[in-house]
Structures are given as C-alpha cells and as structure tokens.
C-alpha cells in the first residue's frame, strides 16, 4: 500500500492519505473483471467520484 501511494498516487489528492483511506476510496470499488487470453479488463462505474485518481494510478502502474 505504501508503494502504491509512493509510485502511483503522487500528485493526486490521495498522495498523503493513510492506508485505510486509500483502501476504502480506491480498492473497495465494485467492478466487473473481464478476462481473456491476452488481457484483463476492469470495468468501473462511470459515475465513481474518484475515477480520475483510479485512472491516474492505473496509468502510473502500467508498463
């Protein structure tokens, strides 16, 4: 969780948040996971209030 905050959440509103806050706001989100042979897609609700933070963290962690 500390590495997630250090690597992916720099420059966001959760950059200084505690572990419990990050877990509640980012990781406990209802999502649909679609998996096939080449990729895994995570479908989030379009009305999620912290959507921009989730997208920024995913882009920062992608290769």
- Sheet-strand content, in percent, reads 15-25%
Order of helices and strands: HHEEH
Number of DSSP E strands: 2
Pick out the low-confidence regions.
none
Largest sheet: 2 strands, antiparallel
Quaternary assembly: single chain
What structural class do helix, strand and pairing data support? Answer: alpha+beta
Total domain count = 1
- Roughly how many Å apart are the termini? 19 Å
What is the mean predicted local confidence, pLDDT? 86
Shape call: globular
Strand order in the largest sheet: 1-2
Annotation field: number of helices: 3
Radius of gyration: 12 Å
Helix content bin:
40-55%
What report would you give on this structure?
The two termini are 19 Å apart. Strand 1 and strand 2 form a beta hairpin. This protein has one domain. It is an alpha+beta fold and 63 residues long. A two-stranded antiparallel sheet has the order 1-2. It is built from three helices and two strands.
In brief:
With 63 residues, this protein is of the alpha+beta class.
């Amino acid at each position: 969780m500390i590495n997630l905050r250090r690597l992916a959440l720099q420059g966001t509103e959760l950059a200084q948040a505690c572990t419990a806050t990050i877990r509640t706001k980012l990781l406990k989100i209802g999502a649909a996971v679609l998996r096939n042979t080449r990729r895994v897609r995570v479908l989030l609700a379009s009305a999620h209030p912290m959507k921009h933070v989730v997208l920024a963290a995913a882009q920062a962690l992608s290769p």
